[in-house]
Amino acid sequence: MTKRIRKSERIRKHGSTYIISLPNEVIQALSLIESDQLDFIVRDGQVSLEKSLAIKSENLLGTFSSDIDFFMDKHDQVFKKLAENK
């Protein structure tokens, strides 16, 4: 079962940009570091955040492998259900 994190943060305005802080629990759950990129997915009035799968030129094979592992782990239940419906 996936761990559910529910935190509340206030939106602030800085110039013409809106900003929000990410709680430490979110940073840890997504294994984020300062230079990471996040994808915002909006569906039916709800937003979800996902760590972008970015491939960097240094250590390409290792990065690609860890990104694939991350993707496969994240969508493991979907793949299992697809295999069951074969």
Describe it.
- The chain has three helices and four strands.
- Helix content is 35%, strand content 21%.
- A hairpin with a 2-residue loop joins strand 1 (12-14) and strand 2 (17-19).
- The strands form two sheets. It has a two-stranded antiparallel sheet with strand order 1-2.
- It is α+β, with helices and mostly antiparallel strands.
- The chain is extended.
Strand content: 15-25%
Query: Shape, please?
Result: extended
**Strand sequence of the main sheet, in spatial order?**
1-2
Largest sheet: 2 strands, antiparallel
Amino-to-carboxy terminus distance: 24 Å
Tell me which oligomeric state these chains represent: single chain
Radius of gyration: 16 Å
Q: How confident overall, as mean pLDDT?
A: 83
Unreliable stretches (pLDDT < 50, length at least 5) are: none
Helix content: 25-40%
Write the SSE topology.
Layout: E1 12-14, E2 17-19, H1 24-29, E3 38-43, E4 46-51, H2 60-74, H3 76-84
Antiparallel strand pairs: 1-2, 3-4
Q: Could you give a quick summary of the protein structure above?
A:
With 86 residues, the protein is an alpha+beta fold.
